[in-house]
Amino acid sequence: MKHGWQRTVLKWLAVTLIFGILTSPIVVLFGPFVNLKQAVVGAILRSRHPHYITWLFDREDLDRILGRMDQAPEQNIFTFAAREDKTLTLHKIESERFVGYILEIPDPRRIQVATAADINEKGDTTSNIARNNDAVAAINGGGFYDPNGTGTGRLPYGFIMHQGEYLLGKDVDDVEEVDFIGFTEAGNLIAGTYNKAELRRLGAREGLTFGPPLIVNGMKMITDGDGGWGIGPRTAIGQRRDGTVLFVVVDGRQIGYSIGATLADLQNIMYEQGAYIAANLDGGSSSTLYLNGKVVNKPADLLGERMIPTAFIVK
Q1: Are residues 298 and 254 in contact, defined by beta-carbon separation less than 8 angstroms?
Q2: How far is 195 from 302, CA to CA, in rounded Å?
Q3: CA dihedral of 81, 82, 86, 87, whole degrees rounded to 10
Q4: Would you list the DSSP string of 183-225?
Q5: Are 296 and 90 in contact (CB under 8 A)?
Q6: 3-state class of 93 per DSSP?
Q7: Secondary structure class of 111 (helix, strand, coil)
Q8: Run of H or E including 234
Q9: Distance between CA 111 and CA 144 in Å, rounded?
Q10: What string of pLDDT tens digits covers the 315 residues of the chain?
Q11: Engineering a disulfide at 137: which of 126, 148, 295, 314 sits with its beta carbon 3.0 to 4.6 angstroms away?
Q12: Rounded to whole angstroms, what are the CA distances from 118 to 54, 124, 133, 140, 177?
């Protein structure tokens, strides 16, 4: 009798477990748990397999779940007095959900784009890119294709510009618009969709492709929802009106330490720090902040720093 009771309990537990596994995706995607739904849908949509979500929800459904970002207005290029200031100031930020870091760079003219040594064959870590370019600080930069999930950090896309020359995107015509985050000769951070003619007019000197813009002309771009990319490790770049550049990196995917941030979280950090312009950079396992010879944050990749094609460095 005793063994029969135990078998009944075990069978009940097994059936309950199987039922929970089979029905949990339905509960997450169609249940009443809004925050959980936003996190899961956003994460899958920005993964290598977005079709798992796009065949379930149309554009209107996704906008309703994730919210929408306001269309970025034309950026006002402000003026500031450039400062010969070699200081770098690091701040740690913490919330109930994440741990991150803010690095302040008073002189934006110190910032350049740097790439892995053999960018078409493989990437390199943020720290190695910094060391190879005699940089004192760096954050990971733009995105890249990883069709086979090899994690080698090759095949960047869009534009890569260094010292006014296109390292990637030379064959793009003057009118094709591409997402661009970078700096002008005067040290202004620019972020948005630009073509080559517009970048020439602005005097763009350093930059790469990623996004979206988070703050433009002092205004938040995410006014509904969390930005639609879910919760995870994040990297962003911003600039105050006095020219000071902000590198922000938030750790994620580490239970008990830091789960991660949404795009709205990044936007709020930048806004509270006084950014007049700010934009999202590549996140996830790529998110890395290097300063004075060491990696400051805790990258999410189990092997340590991820190999990437590009970085913003501080000379």
Answers
A1: yes
A2: 38
A3: 40
A4: EETT--EEEEEE-HHHHHHHTEEEEE----EEEETTEESB-SS
A5: yes
A6: strand
A7: strand
A8: strand 234-239
A9: 21
A10: 455 666 665 666 666 666 555 555 554 455 555 555 555 665 555 544 455 555 566 656 656 656 555 667 889 999 999 899 999 999 999 999 999 999 999 999 999 999 999 887 899 999 999 999 999 999 999 988 876 666 778 889 999 999 999 999 999 999 999 999 999 999 999 999 999 999 999 999 999 999 999 999 999 999 988 888 889 999 999 999 999 999 999 999 999 999 999 999 999 999 999 999 999 999 999 999 999 999 999 999 888 899 999 999 999
A11: 314
A12: 35, 9, 14, 16, 27
| Token couple for 95 | 């919330």
**Could you tell me the two tokens for 176?**
């094709």
**Tokens standing for residue 194:** 């630009």
Alpha carbon 65 to its chain centroid, in Å, reads 21
Find the distance separating the first CA and the last CA of the chain, reported in whole Å: 77
Cβ–Cβ under 8 Å, residues 234 and 250: yes
Closest to 279 measured CA to CA, from 242, 234, 315 = 234
Q: Which residues contact 58 (CB under 8 A, 6 or more apart)?
A: none
Record the tokens describing residue 203, joined without a space: 């005097």
**What is the spatial distance between Cα 14 and Cα 55, in angstroms, rounded to a whole number?**
31
Q: Is the peptide bond before 106 cis (omega within 30 degrees of 0)?
A: no
Residue type for position 212:
P
